[in-house]
Amino acid sequence: MNLRNILTSAAFTVGLVLNAGVAVAHGKGMMTMPSNGQTVGIDTKVMHLMFTDPMQITIVKMKAPDGNTYQINGPAANKAVKTWEGSLPELAPGNYQIDWRGMSSDGHAMNGSFAFSVAN
Amino acid sequence: MGGVLVALELVQIASILVKAGMYISVLLAAGSVINIWLLTELDAAASRRLRRLAVWSALLGVVFSALTIPLRAAFFYGGIGGALDPMMLQIALSSPLGLSAATHILGLLAIATVAFNRSGARIFAMLGVALVAISFALRGHATNDPRLALSTLFVIHILAASFWIGGFFPLYDMVGRGNAAAVRTVERFGQAALVMVGLLVGAGSVILVILAGNPIAVLTQPWGQFLALKLAVVALLLGLAGLNKLRLTPALAKTGEGAPLRTSIQWEAAAFILILLVTATFTSTVAPEHAG
Prior knowledge:
Chain A is mainly beta.
């Protein structure tokens, strides 16, 4: 058996083995406000991401019910914070999804997402 | 575990492939230098080819290490545009990953001097090997507490893995000769492997206990499942190494017939690449939650 066959079969085996399993949520040990699944009022002006260890939040995006994605501004991306506060735009009733990215203090790339609803 | 992979986006897939390429090229560069120093009975042709492999894998390692930075910036930004975003690039560069990549590149450039077949260059290249091994301790879980213990264990783990992956090519090359020097080369590598593989597995086991607490409990987490997959391939690799040492090397010594041993070395190399691919995947996507 030549090396190319070996590598092809190895890659194929990895593909097979990796096709079964469970999902992961990277970046546990955190809380958010609004929390995942919570319904808040249309007067909500800020959101918080709270971590047990300082985290540099590099980007926070919000998918709104109007189909647009908004970037939420907060502390600078190069600043490590335990509590990240972002200013929300005017919220219309509907479902929102937040996706955040960042880096933990040990240099790991982190990301997470959560959803909340807005009602009158 | 499958869910982790399904949820991957393009930037993450590119990051995993670049990381795997970095692991392979960097460990191969360092390991080639270790084996130039260890395998004193390589003939001129094999020695020249091994030096060339060290240089090319070092240069490839520089490219892969450098690519990790814009890819990390793209992840931070949530899209490929981040690869050129000054703020995201600055965050990636000033992170432990940036320091690690810079140290990698320095070490690899020192390794590339092995192109000059001089004793001074070899000493310089060995310093490069040390830098490369240390650079792995500057990022990720090696920076967690207890930092000194974890860093030391990671350096041992990396050096032992480098020694092993760096042995495949010169052994394959020499075994083709089927002469007495080939047999002595394989036996010398085998003696060193007893110590190095022990260090590799021992250091890896202690790292696992420190990071995960209860190694059985982490099997319920994706991180633990990836690790279990990695260890399954490691077991296969150890089996092949045992077969080489106990059966195929004595057969080479008796008959001069190197074909079975060469095939086994090819399989070992493939298993090693698979291990590094799995390692790159789980160190890029999931983290252990301490259980115990």
